[in-house]
Design brief:
This protein is α/β, with parallel strands linked by helices and 283 residues long. It is built from ten helices and twelve strands. Helix content is 36%, strand content 22%. It is globular and about 50 Å long.
Length: 283
């Protein structure tokens, strides 16, 4: 949307995934943070994996990751997700303007965006891939709560298991010597029983914490062969997570799980749940 000669991405899931009223939203996030107790983290946090369901289900888990970066000086947050609403071949980069939330506007890192799309024909502007996508939007109010004077680089991956490695290599190239946080927006297993989610999500998380996309890939392919009842996926934004893992591996970062939960913790239905993990990478 063009607004006052400025390109603005409007909220798509306010009042659905999270409160649209700023006061209610602020109180909701504050209540999450009050329930967070963090271990001592010795080192700079370089990356996050954060869930992206509605705040009622995954907000408390997400709060662990965001509280860990509270008051950090971060120039740009690179937000990476897999497309849920529009399927296309390649990687969509939002290149200019601002994103609006109930807390106000956030500027897009236009210079970084232009550098990225100049690196490959696989990276391009496709705004429709972002219009209704919730996975990046739900991270923004948390970021606005804990950070100051930051920009964002929103990236949605449309192709499955094709572009993540090239994306990671080019992000490493263009962000060298910059103060960047890399965020992969991803939930864990989808729709197994709570008992199965507790067991199999642990295996996925253990693979992620090895900070190697090839190890994660092998574990996910192994899990898929088990045909766990009702389980549609063990990691919904696999490409986004592999992108961040590749970057973290290059930076020799360590992974740490801060919190795990699943929707069965909030829902009466334990037969079909979604898993959530808050993971940080630090050096």
């Amino acid at each position: 949307m063009e607004f006052e000669n400025q390109k603005i991405r409007l909220p798509a899931v306010a009042d659905a995934f999270y409160p649209g009223d700023p006061k209610e939203l602020k109180l909701t996030i504050q209540n999450f943070f009050q329930n967070v107790k963090l271990p001592k983290i010795k080192g700079d946090i370089l990356g996050l994996i954060v869930p992206h369901a509605g705040y009622y289900f995954s907000g408390q888990t997400a709060a662990f990751a965001f509280k860990a970066i509270s008051q950090k000086e971060i120039e740009t947050v690179v937000l990476i997700g897999d497309s849920h609403y529009e399927y296309f071949d390649g990687v969509s980069v939002w290149t200019k303007g601002e994103w609006l939330t109930p807390f106000g506007r956030i500027k897009v890192d236009e210079k970084l965006a232009q550098k990225l799309i100049s690196k490959s024909s696989r990276f391009f502007e496709k705004d429709s891939a972002h219009f209704f996508e919730h996975s990046l939007e739900v991270q923004l109010p948390f970021l606005q709560t804990v950070l100051k004077d930051f920009k964002i680089l929103p990236i949605i991956i449309g192709s499955q298991n094709e572009d993540w490695l090239e994306l990671a290599k080019n992000l490493l190239l263009i962000t060298e010597n910059k103060n960047i946080l890399f965020l992969a927006s991803s939930d864990l297993s989808h729709y197994p029983s709570q008992e199965d989610a507790n067991f199999y999500d642990k295996k996925t998380i253990e693979a992620i914490l090895k900070v190697d996309p090839e190890i994660l890939d092998r574990e996910l392919r192994k899990l898929e062969k088990l045909n766990v009842e009702n389980c549609q996926t063990f990691l919904c934004a696999e490409d986004a997570v592999k992108t961040v893992l590749t970057i973290m591996k290059e930076k020799k970062a360590k992974g740490l799980l801060l919190n795990y939960s699943n929707s069965g913790d909030k829902s009466q239905d334990k037969s079909r749940v979604v898993g959530y993990g808050a993971i940080i990478f630090y050096k």
